[in-house]
């Protein structure tokens, strides 16, 4: 992988922030977009823009074909059996809320839903609200101190009352890559369907929904070099067929009268209203970009960055890395003894380094570790070891200023 060449595809990286070259280590929040993605969106609005699935005219047909080709590309990218199992949404949060909404009739008083203790609020609050509404119970698979999940405990949690297991593929705080294939096997043995929150998993693992045998997989385009405002809910077609529609309106209907409405087939049943066509095309361009760059090479590169950064950070006095799982991806959260993460993040920004500080939308996980938050560096395919050197030096400098 030629990183210098890759960095030319991301002109945003070539700028100074507070007088220093930008070091962008906030990829878990959102990734930067390569020129091919920006160009694809621009081309769409320059030459193809039209509403989809509703016109006989030329542009509408061009836009519809491009939109459906994007769906097919996404399906192939995660190895879905059929492209109708790909529902376009605004992102992970909407995908999970969609599922929590259509699950309402499936959850009865006394039923249970299981989440893990390392969930992003997006994969906890919707289930908590559904449980409150339907008088069901939310149960939590605990996290061990090293940032892993206890699978023996999972077996015990999965009683006959459990109607869904919702768990993250990859923690946005700890970097832990959960053993999701094994988790799904255990859940299915007990007849429990599984939703994986793939917001981070899509960016740092090779996702194969058929190999995982997962029932639902939610992700956002913007975590994997695609635009914001486009995401996916993958659902096994047998599930999507039996669940009710999400929103009602145009596009999702088959036949409408004042007496009765019948609904479209998959995937349109779940895509009411005008979709984000440019976003879907941008997502296809982003996934093409990572495929053409080479997924294996990207993952190897990110792993090398993670190892290098871990080694460097471990040498800093007072360092505490939160999340020590063996199977970990390009996310590293830490605290330095006696220093508030916000103060450290602010000084790093002054040195041109973009990291995220705070609870990372995982307050229960922060409570578990009894910490207010962390500083988090997260890497993407364009980051370099030289940037990690700058980062480590900047931390030392910031610490000396704050002590
Ligand atoms: N789930 C996980 C594991 C995430 O990391 C995020 C976003 C979401 C769900 C929600 O994704 P969205 O695209 O719908 O917002 N995580 C982060 C983060 O770690 N920092 O900023 C956003």
Please tell me about this protein's structure.
The chain has 15 helices and 17 strands. A hairpin with a 2-residue loop joins strand 1 and strand 2. It has helices spanning 3-8, 35-48, 58-77, 92-102, 125-134, 151-157, 180-189, 201-204, 209-212, 237-242, 277-293, 295-314, 341-350, 363-369, 385-402, and strands at 16-17, 20-21, 23-24, 86-89, 112-116, 137-141, 162-168, 194-197, 216-220, 231-235, 253-256, 261-263, 319-322, 331-336, 353-354, 356-358, 374-378. Strands 4-10-9-8-7-5-6 form a 7-stranded mixed beta sheet, with helices on both faces. A 4-stranded antiparallel beta sheet has the order 13-14-17-16, with helices on one face. Strands 1-2 form a two-stranded antiparallel sheet. The relative contact order is 0.16. Helix 2 runs antiparallel to helix 11 (277-293), helix 12 (295-314) runs parallel beside helix 15 and helix 13 (341-350) crosses helix 15. Bound molecules: ligand 7TS. Ligand 7TS binds next to helix 4.
Quick rundown:
The chain has 403 residues and is an alpha/beta fold. The chain has helices at residues 3-8, 35-48, 58-77, 92-102, 125-134, 151-157, 180-189, 201-204, 209-212, 237-242, 277-293, 295-314, 341-350, 363-369, 385-402, and strands at 16-17, 20-21, 23-24, 86-89, 112-116, 137-141, 162-168, 194-197, 216-220, 231-235, 253-256, 261-263, 319-322, 331-336, 353-354, 356-358, 374-378.
